[in-house]
Amino acid sequence: MAYRVVTSLFFLKRKKFFVFENVSHKATLIQIQRIPLLGITKTYRTVSNEAVQVLAGCPPLGIRAIMEKYTLDEAQLRKTKMEAEGLWNFDYQSRIPPWKVKRVKWQFYVYSMKGNDIFTDGSKIDEKVGVAFVYFLDGVEIENRQFRLSDGASVFTAEIMAVRVAIAYSHEKNLSEVRIISDSRSALMALNPLGERRQMINAIKESVNNNIELCWVRAHQGQFGKERAAELAKEATARDTTDYKFNKSCVQLKNDVKKQILIKW
């Protein structure tokens, strides 16, 4: 919170990383940071600023403030624009009417050889991301499909997309009483909150009808359908064409900024 307060004191005309050129600004930020760091590290007042920052594991406040400002600006763009330079923004948010707000629940998967089961999975290998699902009818594999996402997309994005394309497939084939099974609990839990504002998540929630039941299965337990979907998702990472192109998510952006802070430091 302190970093954001300090950040608001400075107006940045360009969204890029640089160190404050104004000496008085640097001195002010160092003084703001030095006092609490001395208390944290329990060191003498004669210890240099650089030493106390290293001991406390806190980068210079000036660098951190600029990085935080950049992160906030970029995150805001991702939340307000659905697409940027041909890439989808997974974190794009939109308002939905109150009467369309819904909660999608999920169940624990109980193995059965009867009915329509669609297993989904997302995989990431060396920054290459693949998505796949496989459709079983009464325990027999009927069809599978594979997709590749843009390099660097998050695993969470892949798992969400796997559920999305599986639901679309069930509508395409007019399947009734179909179970869509995923091993990503985080993806399924994202469909539950009523306050969710991400457009992609809400689109999935809206497409779930009474014929669809979402289920969670534990990964790497030898369940054939799940292992088959995982195998197909790994193969999808090697596809030549990219089916869905995504910008980096806000979480990925924050992680990149943390790395940049360490490099600048």
Automatic annotation (TrEMBL):
<dbReference type="InterPro" id="IPR002156">
    <property type="entry name" value="RNaseH_domain"/>
</dbReference>
<dbReference type="InterPro" id="IPR050092">
    <property type="entry name" value="RNase_H"/>
</dbReference>
<dbReference type="Pfam" id="PF00075">
    <property type="entry name" value="RNase_H"/>
</dbReference>
<comment type="similarity">
    <text>Belongs to the RNase H family.</text>
</comment>
<dbReference type="GO" id="GO:0043137">
    <property type="term" value="P:DNA replication, removal of RNA primer"/>
</dbReference>
<keyword id="KW-0378">Hydrolase</keyword>
<dbReference type="InterPro" id="IPR012337">
    <property type="entry name" value="RNaseH-like_sf"/>
</dbReference>
<dbReference type="GO" id="GO:0004523">
    <property type="term" value="F:RNA-DNA hybrid ribonuclease activity"/>
</dbReference>
<keyword id="KW-0255">Endonuclease</keyword>
<dbReference type="InterPro" id="IPR036397">
    <property type="entry name" value="RNaseH_sf"/>
</dbReference>
<dbReference type="GO" id="GO:0046872">
    <property type="term" value="F:metal ion binding"/>
</dbReference>
<dbReference type="GO" id="GO:0003676">
    <property type="term" value="F:nucleic acid binding"/>
</dbReference>
<feature type="domain" description="RNase H type-1">
    <location>
        <begin position="112"/>
        <end position="238"/>
    </location>
</feature>
<keyword id="KW-0540">Nuclease</keyword>
<keyword id="KW-0479">Metal-binding</keyword>
<protein>
    <recommendedName>
        <fullName>ribonuclease H</fullName>
        <ecNumber>3.1.26.4</ecNumber>
    </recommendedName>
</protein>
